[in-house]
Structures are given as C-alpha cells and as structure tokens.
Amino acid sequence: MQWSDEGIILATRRHGETSLILELMTRGHGRHLGLVHGGRSRKQQPFLQAGNTVTVVWRARLDEHLGTFVTEPVTERASALMAGSTGIYGIQMLGTLLRLLPERDPHPALYETLGAILDALDSPIAAGELLVRYELAILNELGFGLDLGTCAATGTNDDLAYVSPKTGRAVSRSAGSPYHGRLLALPAFLTTRSVSPNAEDLRDAFALTGYFLARHVHEPRGIEPSPARERLLAIIGALG
Predict the structure, then answer these.
(1) Which of 27, 52, 76 is at the close of a domain?
(2) 155, 142 contact by CB (below 8 A)
(3) Tens digit of pLDDT for each residue in 104-149?
(4) What is the mean pLDDT of residues 36-61?
(5) Are residues 91 and 69 located together in one domain of the fold?
(6) Is the pTM of this model over 0.90?
C-alpha cells in the first residue's frame, strides 16, 4: 500500500531512540498517523513540528497498519506559532477538534481552512473568530450543523439574535425576546460577514459552539473539551 499527499502536522510523539510518530491532517486522506524513521535526527526534527506543512509518502503492507511516512518540508510556520500564546493554544485546540473526526476520513475543506487559520493566529480577536468558525465547521462535518440562516419562527433572516438550544436553529430578536433567558446568544458576526466581532461577541460565540459540542460530542463520548480552548478564552476575556 502506498499513497502521496500533503499534510499539516498536528502533533508528534517519540518512538524508540530515533523515530517519531507523526499525526497529520492530510488533504486527501484525512487525519492520519505514521512512523517517521529517523524523525528525531538533526536533519528532520527541525521541520517535523506542529503547524508545519509537509509532503508525505505513506507506505504499509496492509491498509490497517500504522505504516511509515517519508516527508519533505513545504511551509514552516511552527516557530511563528510558538512565538505567542495564541499560536500555541490555537494549534493545540485545532488538533483536539480534528481528533473528533474519524481517523483517515477525508475532509478536504477542513484541510484547506486549517492552513489559512494557522497563518492568521497572531491576533487573539482574529484567531478567536477563525477558531469559532472552525468549531461550527466541525459540528457540520459531524452531522450536527447549526442552521443560522433564517429564523425558525418566522422564516426571515432579519435581525437574527438567538439560537434555540433544542433545535440549533436561529431565532430573530422579535420572536425570541419573550424567551431570551432560554435561548443562546447569536453574535451578529456569525450571520453577517461585514460585521467584526469584539471580545464579548467571541465569548458568546464560543458559548454557542461549546454548548453544542458538549451536547452532541463531548458528553456522549465522555471526553473533556480542550484545555487550550479554555486558555484561549481567558486571553480573549482579558481583552475586555
């Protein structure tokens, strides 16, 4: 068995004295693990870092085997990510989100978006907006997408301000105001691209995605949300 692809490194772990097990999000083969012989060498280790893009050839005797990777660097962004806490927590959070998907299940749109996010993690507000949108995309890929396009009560797309925790559908301000205590806030930037979020908007957005991730994914699987997510939220919260 053999294939070639491009992938973004999510994490590495040591294997033996000289090798690494590499976890990649690939364009055509989804999240995939493989062994890199000599991955801890002076030649390979500098580019085998979380956040970097590599080309990869995977080989194994059988499809279900771990297999081996032969890699070459394409884009080295790890040092920039590690230079700030937003980058550090961002790559950790993205890896945790992608591990919610079945291993080796292709998600090309998520792969393309991943690279764009990693190149824009230098600002907490910009990073927060990209990451919360990625959480929405993950929910959609898992089959739990939210319907934020029109009001569940009126069918219009005017002044959408809430989301029903039961249905995941948007609700307009006029229709939802009598029940606002039982609804989740819907920040305007999630429905209107021309609107930029502030720190409060991002807190509301992460509360929204966090609710549905907990309900549909974390609680049924008995897992906890990423600690990096909480640390990133603390950084955003400190902005005001």
Answers:
(1) 76
(2) no
(3) 999 999 999 999 999 999 889 999 999 999 999 999 999 999 999 9
(4) 94
(5) no
(6) yes
Phi and psi (nearest 5°) for 160?
-75, 125
Cα dihedral 6→12→13→16 (10° resolution): 50
Indicate whether 34 belongs to any domain: yes
**173 in a structural domain:** no
Structure tokens at 203: 């807190």
Is residue 206 within 8 A of residue 134, CB to CB? The reply is no
* Structure confidence at residue 130 (pLDDT): 95
> Quick one: 49 and 112 in the same domain?
no
Q: Among 76, 98, 119, where does a domain finish?
A: 76
Residue 129 belongs to what domain range? 81-148+186-237
Whether residue 13 is found in the same domain as residue 40 = yes
Two tokens, residue 131: 């990451």
Which one-letter DSSP state was computed for residue 226? P
Residue 238 to residues 12, 85, 90, 203, Cα–Cα distance (Å): 31, 13, 17, 11
Residues 62 and 127 in one domain: no
**79 touches 39 (CB < 8 A):** no
In DSSP terms, which residues pair with 163 in a beta bridge?
170, 184
Q: Is residue 165 part of a domain?
A: no
DSSP, res 169: B
Q: Is the pLDDT of residue 240 over 80?
A: no
153: left (phi over 0), alpha (psi -120 to 50) or beta: alpha
**pLDDT score of 32 more than 90:** yes
